[in-house]
UniProtKB/TrEMBL annotation:
Native organism: Enterococcus aquimarinus
This enzyme's EC code(s): 2.7.1.71
Family: Belongs to the shikimate kinase family.
Record bears the keyword Transferase: yes
Cofactors named for this entry: Mg(2+)
Gene: aroK
Name of the featured protein: Shikimate kinase
Co-factor remark: Binds 1 Mg(2+) ion per subunit.
Amino acid sequence: MFAFKKKEQGRCIMTQIVLIGFMGAGKTAIGKSLAQKLQIPFLDTDQLIEKKVNLSIPKIFEEKGESFFRQQEKEVLNTIKDQSAVISTGGGIILSQESQALLATFANVVFLEVDIDTLVERIKSDANNIRPLFLTHTPEAFKQIYTDRLPLYQKASTLIVTNRGKSIEELTNEIILKVGV
Ligand code: S3P
């Protein structure tokens, strides 16, 4: 069996892997694959927020604003912090100190690192997932967001893996191996 770091809550032992990283890093695809392999639930903070607020992410940004969205991220993280799950997060989850503190309570936080040029290509070709921040920033400003966030992802993570030139299965196995050591 897998030897992931566990978190003990009362008498219940939990397996938790939170995936963090910039938009387009592959958190959802890798998260689903990990959850399937480990046979634990898959959760996605963006999906949980959409369900909670009953609006799509672009609509939340448009109608309620980014700070409202960030508040929802904290609330959702707080509600799942004691669950056994693989959790895919929105790329900005590392921005607030409260979310950083919440992330630190999860057993494993894996940063999927990808260079900005690859990310931009992926985001452009992902018609199913509209990113408001991509649409509302110039290419230079968008790259700056990435640069500003990099140290935050690094600081919040317990493991860093690169997601470029690897299949979903390869990366899933790599994470299982590295986190399990
Ligand atoms: C965001 C990333 C998005 C989503 C929202 C804001 C960000 O999630 O939460 O559009 O600030 O980086 P993905 O990282 O899954 O694209």
